[in-house]
Amino acid sequence: MSAEFEMGQLMVILTVLFILAFSASAVFKRFGIPGLIGEILIGVLVAAQIGDWSVMEFLGIVRPVPGDPDSGNFYWNAIEILAQLGVVFLLFTVGLETKVKELTSVGRTALLVAVLGVILPFIAGYAVIMMWDGNLYHAMFMGAAMVATSVGITAQVIKDLNLMSASESRIIIGAAVIDDVLGLIVLTMVAGMARTGSIEIINVTGIIVISSLFVILLIVFCAKGVPRIAEKITAAIKRKEAEGRERKLKGILFPIALIVCLVLSSFAAQIGLAMIVGAFLAGMIFAEHAEEHGLIKKTNAITIFLLPFFFVYVGLHIDTESFTSELLLLAAVVIVLAMITKYVGCGAGTILGDRERKSSAHIVGIGMIPRGEVGIIVATLGVAITVNGSAAMSADLFAVVVMMSVVTTIIAPFMFSRVFRKKYGKGPAA
Question: Between 167-196 and 107-132, two packed helices, what is the crossing angle to 10 degrees?
Answer without folding.
Answer: 40
